[in-house]
Automatic annotation (TrEMBL):
Record-annotated MobA-like NTP transferase domain positions: 6-164
SUPFAM superfamilies: Nucleotide-diphospho-sugar transferases (SSF53448)
GO molecular function list: nucleotidyltransferase activity
Pfam families tied to this protein: NTP_transf_3 (PF12804)
Entries under InterPro entries matching the protein: MobA-like_NTP_Trfase, Nucleotide-diphossugar_trans
Entry protein name: Molybdenum cofactor cytidylyltransferase
Alphabetically ordered keywords of this record: Nucleotidyltransferase, Transferase
Length: 193
């Protein structure tokens, strides 16, 4: 059986939301707490990458034993958080075969969707959730791909460029999770870029 880590990307400043999404309360808990709990239900270890107001998140949130990694370059985009997380896993004691990458701003993510992708875990695996035929999160990255993903990740694209040129297993998660991300507060309007 493969060892699957969870990687929660939670470093962004939430410019359009008006605050770091890790600190947003949703359904009685912080978004970062929900994301960590969901990952913890399926993955071990779980790492969470913080950036904007990292100390406030760390002090406020119950991160349920997740390993916290600080991304000092969080303002450069999601790619720097992905690299921070993959770097943390490369130095992890014990073997991790694959990582499930999740985003903090998807409160509708479920352990069932993570399990569906984790079923494909292997060192050479690449898998992505689809919802109604549209690619989304989570993404499963086998260990053999971490260096390539890290090298090709730029800005807010994360692993998109690497995955576009690779043989990726699409896992239908329609009905298993809600892929909606929270870009603006409920009833709010996006702020000007």
């Amino acid at each position: 059986m493969s060892t699957v880590a969870g990687l929660v990307l939670a470093a962004g400043g939430g410019r359009r939301y008006g605050m770091p999404k890790a600190l947003v309360e949703y359904g009685g808990s912080l978004l970062v707490e929900r994301a960590v709990r969901t990952a913890r239900a399926v993955c071990d270890p779980v790492l969470v990458v913080l950036g904007a107001q990292a100390v406030d998140v760390w002090r406020t949130a119950d991160l349920d034993g997740a390993t916290v990694l600080a991304n000092r370059d969080w303002e450069t985009g999601m790619a720097s958080s992905l690299r921070t997380g993959l770097d943390g896993l490369r130095g992890w004691p014990g073997r991790v075969d694959a990582v499930l990458v999740t985003l903090v701003d998807m409160p509708g993510m479920t352990p069932e969707a993570l399990r569906a992708l984790a079923a494909h875990a292997a060192p050479d695996a690449l898998a992505i959730a689809t919802y109604g035929g549209v690619r989304g999160h989570p993404v499963l990255l086998g260990r053999e791909h971490w260096a390539g993903v890290a090298a090709s990740a730029t800005g807010d694209e994360g692993a998109r460029r690497y995955l576009a040129g690779a043989d990726v297993t699409e896992v239908d998660c329609t009905g298993l999770a809600d892929p909606t991300d929270l870009d603006v507060p409920p009833g709010g309007v996006p702020s000007a870029p």
